[in-house]
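Module 6 notes. Inverse folding takes a fixed backbone as the condition and produces residue identities as the prediction. Think of it as a translation problem where the source language is geometry and the target language is the twenty amino acids. Below is one complete input and output pair. Work through it position by position during the lab.
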């Protein structure tokens, strides 16, 4: 099939999200500058040079790599991502923080390998579903392989622990099964099983219990487990309709925990107000819808599923962050894609965008 130009509308959406993301990250990071100039410049370098800079390079490279490459090496990519994520338990490589073992320390930098696992899972699951095709409606070729993959991922992520990434990957996988035509009754069964599993985790995990209690009663323990959501509400409420103005957030200074990371949407709402927050949400919705359009016009089944998986993954993660900050969903700590601190996350997601742009060059005319 002859190559065309990339989908310009999708590229414009990405550009707007990146521009807004960089602006809000720099603004939110000013809270760090007030406490430590060295930390501020270190975080800025990691995000803008290693994350954004290398991410744009990866996006360009993935734009140039034919999408069939990912299908041909899907198993090796997934296996490599599993081994890399499990490497956090190797004493010489792993680095822990706050009781979690989620990072690999290379000496000159630290990164979270789970970001590569998200990408690897989407690639391999898209390849598997495109290989079985209509057999996916058979339990043995659809639900069972998914359950096996998720179980392997759960063994690694629950050990770290990293419940939020497990939830994100599982929701993405279920969505891909739905797109591929798996019967609803099977998906409802998987959903019910997931709820039971998460309920059991909450029952036996104190920190998850605290987050559920905070979700049910945001006023509970305002100086403890509910502190972040209380400060987020204050930030969003003080933003009003049009916001305090760019860079004028008060909550990012010694009030909001991780203003450049877990709480960045609260800073955005305070500075840009209801209007700015709404425009941000609309951009993510447009990203999803345009991605689905590219998937619908993709040259083959694999590329369509791959695009669907990528845009669902990014959108679900973004809305998990927004829902947590606004109190619609329990606090998860997931970063807002293209905006929150996380050089590795930004780099990997830009690489994913490059894959979508490459596939958009082969769109069929419907």
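Target side of the pair, the amino acids:
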């Amino acid at each position: 099939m002859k190559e065309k130009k990339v989908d310009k509308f999708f590229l414009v959406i990405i550009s707007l999200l990146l521009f807004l993301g960089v602006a809000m990250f720099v603004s939110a990071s000013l809270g760090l500058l007030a406490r430590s100039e060295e930390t501020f410049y270190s975080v800025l370098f990691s995000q803008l040079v290693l994350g954004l800079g290398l991410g744009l390079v990866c996006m360009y490279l993935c734009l140039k790599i034919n999408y069939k490459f990912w299908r041909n090496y899907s198993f090796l990519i997934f296996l490599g991502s599993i081994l890399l994520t499990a490497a956090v338990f190797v004493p010489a490589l792993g680095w822990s923080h706050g009781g979690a073992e989620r990072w690999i320390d290379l000496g000159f930098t630290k990164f979270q390998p789970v970001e590569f696992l998200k990408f690897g899972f989407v690639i391999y699951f898209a390849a598997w579903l495109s290989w079985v095709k209509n057999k996916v409606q058979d339990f043995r070729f659809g639900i069972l392989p998914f359950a096996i993959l998720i179980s392997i991922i759960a063994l690694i992520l629950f050990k770290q622990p990293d419940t939020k990434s497990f939830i994100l990957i599982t929701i993405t996988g279920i969505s891909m099964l739905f797109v591929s035509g798996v019967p609803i009754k099977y998906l409802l069964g998987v959903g019910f099983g997931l709820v039971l599993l998460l309920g059991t985790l909450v029952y036996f995990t104190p920190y998850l219990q605290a987050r559920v209690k905070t979700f049910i009663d945001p006023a509970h323990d305002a100086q403890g487990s509910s502190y972040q959501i209380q400060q987020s509400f204050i930030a969003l409420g003080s933003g009003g309709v049009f916001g305090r103005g760019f860079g004028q957030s008060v909550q990012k200074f010694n009030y909001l925990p991780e203003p450049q990371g877990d709480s960045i949407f609260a800073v955005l709402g305070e500075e840009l107000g209801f209007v700015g927050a709404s425009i941000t949400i609309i951009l993510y919705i447009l990203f999803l819808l345009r991605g689905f359009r590219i998937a619908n016009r993709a040259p083959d089944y694999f590329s369509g599923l791959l695009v669907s998986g990528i845009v669902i993954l990014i959108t679900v993660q973004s809305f998990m962050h927004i829902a947590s900050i606004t109190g619609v969903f329990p606090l998860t700590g997931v970063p807002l894609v293209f905006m929150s601190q996380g050089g590795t996350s930004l780099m990997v997601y830009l690489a994913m965008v490059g894959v979508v742009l490459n596939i958009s060059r082969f769109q069929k005319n419907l």
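Reference fact for the lab report: Residues 275 and 298 are 34 Å apart (CA to CA).
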